[in-house]
Design goal:
This protein is of the alpha/beta class. It is built from 20 helices and 17 strands. The chain folds into three domains: 76 residues, Chitobiase/beta-hexosaminidase domain 2-like (Chitobiase, domain 2, 2-Layer Sandwich); 315 residues, Alpha-Beta Barrel (TIM Barrel), CATH 3.20.20; 130 residues, Alpha-d-glucuronidase, C-terminal Domain. About 2% of the residues have low confidence. The protein binds alpha-D-glucopyranuronic acid.
């Protein structure tokens, strides 16, 4: 008996250790109190439950719901030696306060504070498909296991492990302030709105709701035709309008807390109002009218090109399309625009949609999943890139923020252990865009790995340098879109396929020839610079004033042009590629030196160290491939020697 007990004890311990080291517990506290903490008091809600389970202190904690305590998700923490009081006007506010307190506890620094999120809408966008695949997903299959949910009479039964997994997911999101998710891909299947799937969506939504997370859906604009054989999806057709109204009523009957729709229309082959010669405003307003009585919203994406403005410089097309419609959208429509005008490149100038759309609320869409930043193989911390965006677009001008999720069913959720930092940083910045990249990195490293400064300091530095390193080896000086077709991982500067639209081809974007390289978007070229507000319009337009990190985005520049460093453009390009490669080598060295330290923190389990190590080796190889392929190719035009 005693032996069996000992065996179980050891087995439990091993299981705990294994779980702690495989990345599955993310940044969250893992050690649950053996019995619920008795010093935590307040009315019954998720915040109370979380604190009872994970608060370890002896100072009593009181949760107070106070209608006068600030709007929505805002909260106050008053901490002294006698008591810690959390006050908010809503249960979600209390939940954010609870996670804040737990975070402070984990970081060993409990202080009084008042917090209010910068954005009301802090959403993850999943690009998950019903067949379990994830568009641009690099962490396994979708976490939504539609087939593991069975319709039983009026109910949906979800396998217990799946329920637990969804709750873990919800908890992770709530802990960083995310308050909504769009469940499915913007390239949406009409089946998403079928009776069966809606009931399953409701079952997921019910699990998310206690964590303050609202559910939203991406819709396919032609759903009335695909699902109910209507002859048209014309947004001005009365039958179509009625169809959407009924569908929305049905959704709200199932899910009173439903949030609304995200729409990709007339973009990359998706149906939309343009199919009937109607405008984006016609389409968005039809949906907005159906959602309005229920308090729902429409997030209408501005990622459109190749339709009405075919032939125009792709980076200009969103403004050309949407600016004339500004002022025509219903109040519950928000325009959702990617941070840059092209497509989630490692560095882009901000999208001028944020300058030109003045009457309609805007939301920014960031990409957490690393489609163009090394996927789940490269260590690239994206907070510095997002902070760069906020240095051009005031958060106060935005209604909300969306991040394309990097989550899949991999054990560590995100494929690369360090990709978890991007999910974390997205949430933290969505709550407070003033936080520094450094503060977020430090906090994440401490919560996820160890408090040991000898680990946290060097890895914070690596994380902070990682984005610029990626830009250096993938797209120095503003080069862009020279990725291999379709999968967007490695380099393909020679990429050209006559059967593809020109604006998918790398050669169109770098425009390299014997005279120079870069895309002339100045007033002597496509005049994309004119879409920017001053001072950026003049700055970007002028070769001498244009920031060098965007030089080739806006200008076609001679190979022997003299850069600020005194080098020629060609030499500067070579130097950037070299620096990118050298940086990744350096990251790898740091990681190797940290092996004993991390192993100690991970109870001698080498798993996390090893998994990151393998990816860093791959990143080194891939950075070299970028340098070699690009310099060989561009060198065939410049006919200048490569720096060595
Ligand atoms: C990119 C991405 C697509 C995605 C699209 C979008 O082009 O490669 O997979 O569908 O963006 O944002 O709609």
């Amino acid at each position: 008996m005693k032996r069996l007990f000992l065996f179980l004890l050891v087995a439990c311990h091993l299981m705990l250790v294994a779980k702690a080291n495989d990345g599955s517990s993310l940044w969250l506290p893992t050690e649950r109190n053996a019995t619920p903490s008795k010093v935590v008091k307040g009315s019954k809600c998720k915040a109370l439950e979380e604190l009872k389970n994970f608060y370890k202190g002896s100072t009593p904690v009181l949760l107070r719901l106070d209608k006068k305590a600030g709007a929505g998700d805002a909260f106050r923490i008053a901490a002294d030696t006698q008591q810690i009081t959390l006050t908010a006007s809503t249960t979600s506010g209390l939940l954010y306060a609870a996670y804040d307190l737990l975070r402070m506890q984990q970081l060993g620094d409990i202080r009084s504070k008042e917090e209010q999120p910068a954005f009301d809408l802090r959403l993850l966008n999943h690009w998950d498909n019903l067949d379990g695949s994830v568009e641009r997903g690099y962490a396994g299959k979708s976490i939504w296991k539609w087939d593991d949910m069975q319709i039983v009479g009026k109910n949906v039964s979800i396998a217990p492990e799946l329920q637990q997994h969804i709750c873990d997911y919800a908890r992770a999101n709530a802990s960083i302030g995310i308050n909504g998710i769009v469940i499915n891909n913007v390239n949406a299947s009409p089946k998403m709105l079928s009776d069966e799937i809606l009931r399953k969506v409701k079952a997921i939504g019910d699990l998310l709701e206690p964590y303050g997370i609202r559910t939203y859906l991406s819709i396919n604009f032609a759903s009335p035709m695909a699902l109910d054989s209507l002859p048209t999806a014309d947004p001005l057709d009365s039958q179509v309008r009625l169809w959407w109204q009924k569908k929305v009523d049905e959704i709200y009957r199932l899910m009173p807390h439903f949030g609304g729709f995200l729409v990709k229309a007339n973009s990359e082959g998706q149906p939309g109002p343009g199919d009937y010669h109607r405008t984006h405003a016609d389409g968005a307003n039809m949906l907005a009218d159906a959602l309005q009585p229920h308090g729902g919203i429409v997030m209408w994406r501005c990622f459109v090109y190749g339709a009405n403005h075919k032939g125009e410089d792709r980076v200009k097309q969103a403004v050309s399309e949407f600016q004339p419609l500004d002022g025509q959208f219903r109040e519950n429509v928000i325009l959702q625009t990617k941070n840059g005008p092209l497509d989630f490149q490692p560095r882009e100038p901000y999208s001028p949609v944020f300058d030109q759309i003045k009457k309609t609320p805007n939301m920014v869409e960031l990409q957490i999943t690393q489609e163009y930043t090394g996927q789940s193989r490269h260590l690239v911390y994206l907070a510095p890139m997002w902070k760069e965006f906020f240095s051009y677009v005031e958060p106060a001008r935005l209604r909300g923020i969306a991040g394309v999720a990097n989550i899949g069913d991999d054990t560590n959720w995100c494929g690369h252990h360090f990709s978890q930092a991007n999910w974390y940083a997205f949430g933290r910045l969505a709550w407070n865009p003033q936080l520094t990249s450094e503060a977020i990195a430090r906090e994440w490293l401490q919560l996820t790995f160890t408090h040991d400064e000898n680990f946290v300091r060097p890895m914070t530095e690596v994380m902070l340098a990682s984005h610029e390193a990626c830009v250096d080896y993938m797209m120095p000086l503003g080069l862009h879109h020279i990725f291999q077709f379709d999968h967007h991982y490695g380099p393909d500067p020679a990429g050209f396929k006559p059967e593809y639209p020109l604006e998918w081809c790398p050669v169109y974007y770098h425009q390299a020839d014997t005279l120079g390289i870069g895309f002339n978007r100045s007033s002597t070229g496509t005049n994309a610079t004119s879409q920017y507000r001053e001072p950026y319009c003049s700055q970007y337009d002028n070769l001498a004033a244009c920031p060098e990190n965007l030089l080739l985005w806006f200008h076609h520049v001679p190979w022997d042009y003299q850069m600020k460093s005194g080098r020629t453009l060609w030499q500067e390009l070579c130097a950037h590629y070299d620096r990118g490669v050298a940086e990744v080598d350096r990251f790898h060295n740091v990681w190797q030196q940290l092996r004993p330290l991390l192993l100690r923190a991970d109870h001698n389990d080498p798993r996390r160290w090893q998994e990151v190590e393998e990816r860093l080796l791959h990143q080194q190889e891939n950075a070299r491939e970028w340098r070699q392929t690009c310099l060989d190719y561009f060198g065939s035009f410049s006919r200048m020697p490569q720096n060595q």
